[in-house]
Amino acid sequence: MSRSQDPQRPLFPFGNPIRMILPKTSNLSPRLLAILNSFEETMSERLKTLRPKDSENILSLSWMISALKSLSAIHNDVKSLITSLELAVSDWNEKWIDVYLDNSVKLLDVCIAFSSEISRLSQGHLFLKCSLHNLDCATPQQFTKARSSLDGWKQHVSSKNPRLQKCFGILDDLINTLDLPKIKNSSKGKVLMHAMYGVRVVTVFICGVIAAAFSCSAEKLSDLKAPETCLWAEAFTNLQVFGHGQIRNVLSTGKVTAINECYLVDASVMKLCRLTQHGDDTEAMRSSITDLREGVDRLSQRLDLLAKEVDVFFQILLTGRNALLGNIRIGSDFSNSMQKNNYAEGPTVR
Fold first, then answer.
1. Nearest Cα to 335, choosing from 88, 131, 94, 161?
2. Per its UniProt entry, which superkingdom is the organism in (predicted)?
């Protein structure tokens, strides 16, 4: 994955995949062209809804929830496109199947990494609940216990998740394999590969943003270029420019936690740490406790919602893989390699 300090490298080392998949000279039937255009226009509209307003923060759990909902919808749109194309699995090129299975298993691992990080943040939430319980008692002894819990939160939220770090290498691999083989003698195949390419670009972008937010590192971002031939290109570029720009600006300040909901909680924690040193039950103390309680409730609710969306996306990927594997002819030369890629787990922390 390209890093901000690295020289700019060409995104397509083997040529523009879109030019190979669907050159301008391709003669698609009006029906196939309508199917493709409908898919791309829908994806464009989904991307536009993810463009935050200038005052909103893309580094938030609420944006991640919306982004994963849109991503799940886009992956479901591909299933509908395949149905519309009436392209049976038996007509798929083995290379397409190989690419699909390889990418999907990598994305399943990304989902597991995200679930692990959500679980880690949820565990940190226990420190905050314990602290609030002790602060409600308003005694010097309980203030001491509260400070200990608040310190526990600060240490926990600043720690690193090894599972999360591994997913950046996975995203690297997905970017490095964005190029696709030239499709010959299959107009339906060209439409399918054209659509799947767009899905892969958007998937890598959204997963990259979430991973960068969780890791609090802008170096993990990769700027992808959308070919102008795609109807979703403008919406994607606008979203990426705004999103990556905002993330880099926020993370350049050296924040320990970049996610908005966590940052607000952390600000309340820091304020309460100062106030509890004196042990006074002041109005400022009570106001800060209220702020922390509201922030903790918001954080908990959104972590739960995000966990559900990660699971939905995981199940969509898994269902698609299983459906494809179930339709592969038994005894084909390709079946053994595909069986090694089979996945049966949910996005649970292992």
1. 94
2. Eukaryota
In this structure, are residues 225 and 241 in contact, taking their beta carbons and an 8 Å threshold? no
The span from the CA of 42 to the CA of 200, in Å, is: 15
How many other CB atoms are found less than 10 A from the CB of residue 294? 13
Contact 103, 200 (CB under 8 A): yes
The identity of residue 105, as a single letter, is V
What DSSP string runs through 229-268?
Answer: TSTTHHHHHHHHHHHHHHHHHHHTT--S--SHHHHHHHHH
Residue 206 CB contacts under 8 Å (≥ 6 apart), including other chains: 67, 68, 70, 71
Say what the pTM is: 0.85
Cα–Cα distance, 64 to 66 (Å, whole number): 5
Residue 178's H or E segment, with its range, is none
Q: Which two tokens stand for residue 36?
A: 């493709």
Task: Kindly provide the b/e burial profile for residues 147-182, where b requires at least 16 CB atoms within 10 angstroms of the residue's own CB.
Answer: bebbebbbebbeeebebbeebbebbeebbeebbbee
Helix-helix angle 260-276:61-85, to 10 degrees: 160
Token pair in block for residue 55: 């005052």
Please give the distance of CA 187 from its chain centroid, rounded to a whole number.
31
pLDDT 10s digits, 231-289: 999 999 999 999 999 888 888 876 667 799 998 998 888 888 887 776 566 788 888 88
Tokens of 35: 């199917």
- Let me know: does 44 contact 203? Beta carbons within 8 Å: no
**Quick one: 185 exposed, middle or buried, by C-beta within 10 A (0-12, 13-18, 19+)?**
exposed
